[in-house]
Amino acid sequence: MDLQANNMIVTLSNTDIVKDISIKVKDKQFVGLIGPNGCGKSTLLKSIYKVIKPRQGSIYLGDLDVVKSDPKSVSRIMGVVGQFNDLSFDFTVQEMVLMGRTPHKKFMEGDSEEDYKIVSAALKQVSLSGYENRSYLTLSGGEKQRVILARALAQQPSFLVMDEPTNHLDIKYQLQILSIVKQMNVGTLAALHDLELAAEYCDYLYVMKQGKVISHGTPTEVLTSQLIGEVYDVECEIYTNPITGELSIAYLPVSMLR
Ligand SMILES: Nc1ncnc2c1ncn2[C@@H]1O[C@H](COP(=O)(O)OP(=O)(O)OP(=O)(O)O)[C@@H](O)[C@H]1O
Q1: Is the CB of residue 41 less than 8 Å from the CB of residue 48?
Q2: 43 lines ligand 1 (CB under 6 A)
Q3: CA of 173 to the centre of ligand 1 (A)
Q4: Domain of 60: which CATH number?
Q5: What average pLDDT score do residues 78-85 get?
Q6: Which domain holds residue 200?
């Protein structure tokens, strides 16, 4: 399922945070959104998953008009892994993941055996089998993040939006989560901070700076030392890692630049 967002402007407290951005994610493509702190990545994603209403612009997921549709219709096809996952009330891990099934249910419909099977499989995928009865609020940041991904898996979405999904995760789970998402084989738009992971997992990248997209293309087209220098104000060299064959980045310490 394609996502097409056109001419998006998002205004918060009378300031344009997202300034006329258009983005396309083709069916089954993994697209990364990169850019420095505060450039507007989360704001753009929130307008796509309907937490913030854009001042201007259209968003289509397949034929569905996301801006005009009610949240339940959107949540039947769009899964979200947000940046902050804290709750005021406590739920068990199983209850949290079962919430992923809600968009598929009729009013007051209970949880079926099939729902419990889906939840159990999702928890297994994120290595949290046995955590069903644990209280969500007592989990570590990384465990919480994996529960949120399990909830998105249980939702069986056709499209996934993720805001820094590897936040709080150690390297094993960073790789695990990105691999699971890749295997889901659905269109994905993810804000990512780690540029090497973005290069490895993303098919296409959009680079944001100060509320605008300043470049887009495949990771090798986009991730040049010149662009990274311009966007993040750091010096670096790009090279091919001799072991993995992947694009790698050597950040040069300030002392080497004198
Ligand atoms: N409700 C608000 N009112 C005013 N400004 C806001 C509001 N919410 C966010 N902003 C500002 O909008 C800008 C973009 O924030 P956003 O969270 O979208 O950036 P980001 O690229 O996701 O950053 P990070 O990488 O740090 O998560 C920031 O300067 C932020 O302070």
Answers
A1: no
A2: yes
A3: 26
A4: 3.40.50.300
A5: 84
A6: 3-219
3-state DSSP call for residue 131? coil
Instruction: Report, as an integer, the average pLDDT of 153-175.
Output: 92
To test the pocket of ligand 1, the residue of 15, 33, 39 to mutate (highest count of ligand atoms within 8 Å of its CB) is 39
Instruction: Name which residue sits closest to atom 8 of ligand 1, judged by CA.
Output: 12
% of the chain surpassing 70 pLDDT: 97
Question: Do residues 198 and 143 make contact, with C-beta atoms less than 8 angstroms apart?
Answer: no
Residues with Cβ < 8 Å from 67, sequence gap 6 or more?
Answer: 53, 54, 57, 58, 59
> Is residue 229 in some structural domain?
no
ipTM for this model: 0.97
Asked, for residue 154, whether it belongs to a domain, the answer is yes
12 lines ligand 1 (CB under 6 A): yes
Do the domain assignments include residue 146?
yes
Confidence of residue 255 (pLDDT cuts 50, 70, 90): low
Q: How many domains does the chain have?
A: 1
Rounded CA-CA distance 228/235 in Å is: 8
225 in a domain, yes or no? no
Whole-Å CA distances, 8 to 40, 43, 160, 183, 255:
12, 11, 19, 30, 41
Give the pLDDT mean for 27-44.
97
Residue position matching structure tokens 């009330």: 89
Report whether residue 13 contacts ligand 1, using a CB cutoff of 6 Å.
Answer: yes
Name the closest-CA residue to atom 6, ligand 1. 12
pLDDT at 257: 56
